[in-house]
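Input record (one chain):
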Amino acid sequence: MRVSPVGPLTGLTILVLAFVAGSALAAPPAPERVLYRDATLIDPATATALPHMDVLVDGERITAVFSDSALATEKAKARVVDLSGRYLMPGLIDSHVHLATPPNQRQAQAVLRRDLYGGVTAVRDMADDLRPVGELTREALVGDIPAPDIYYAALMAGPAFFTDPRTAETSVGGVNGTLPWMQSVTPETDLPLAVARARGTNATAIKLYAALTPALAQRITAEAHRQGLKVWAHATLYPAKPSEVVVAGVDAVSHACLLVREPDATVPAFGQPRQPANLDRVRHGDNPALARLFATMKQRGTILDATLWTYAPPPPGAAQAADMPPLTPGSCDDVVGGAIAGQAFRAGVAISAGTDNIAPWTDPWPDLFHELDDLHTKADMPIAAVLSSATAVSAHAAGQDKEMGEIVPGKLANMIVLTANPLDDLGNLKSLILTIKRGRAYPRQDFVPLGKDDITDY
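The corresponding structure, as predicted from the sequence alone:
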């Protein structure tokens, strides 16, 4: 056989040549300029609907927002999408999901697909097996799968928590409690190293789950912030009570129902017997201990991720959400949680919209819609505030308020188009005809309902 004068081509050489040739042939397409014209622009934060507004998008970002009457030469410079008679608002954000406990890529992709085609453009994953979550994040970011963008947490908890079977499900192939995304910590832990290991997963935050004292929660939070990570926490860490978690400096606390322990003098350690909470103290939305807590949260800017829907009694024969303990008669539910969240809202605490649950596979709309309904009906939040909880507030909770949550120049083009005004009725979110994520359009008509094999019927 003939041999090349430069020597035989090795597998590595062929790979390099193929990469170079492919790079030369497959230059990335130029970003498209699109003008979304003559929409009624919905701003949940101000509860306003501005008619005859235009939004100019270059690639994945918004570059201008202006009145349609000011349109001069932009028509000739962009592809025009006529939205007259339509409503345009920021994409929705679910501030509490679990995509891999245990890992099930097919189900996760199905849920994410349902979310995106239903108007959800970002989610906050609150600790899972970050190996599949990291891949889902990459696939969503580059558009390999139709999915919201994902921002996720690495978990830290005390050793007592790692008897929980879910921690084994998310640690297959490794030693439970020692993996970068699922770490057991004690006062003797090298926290700078532990946080650096969590950062290596590309996490946005550390999640504090359970079995942590106030002092250790404060030390972890300080180190995470020093290294540029957010800190998201369960509202009660057993033994740390809600006020101690907030004073530790965390950025957000999850589960309104976990605030029922705040009026208690002390909270037992994780795994120790717990007396049933006295729900009568909090069910009327006027508890003095919670009033003091909420004043502190408002002053510090701590967000409450209420997750009311996950505490709703499941339909007959259905399972409880994977992240929550089983509900027993007399335990906190979405009604009591709603009263707590309502008191927090009236006190000026920012409420984000998170689900921590999965709707039945037959539901064609995002899980988030259930939480929005509960925030309105159970926490008595006005519609505009509910929409703000799922846009600007959830963006802030995810650490992404500089990138999303509003339709303003410089932010990502994450928007939804509706045929009815959502400020009039939350049900009008189901008039959605188009989701735009990072400038890419996902028409609702292209959504194919999920099959039973793709989503577990909860």
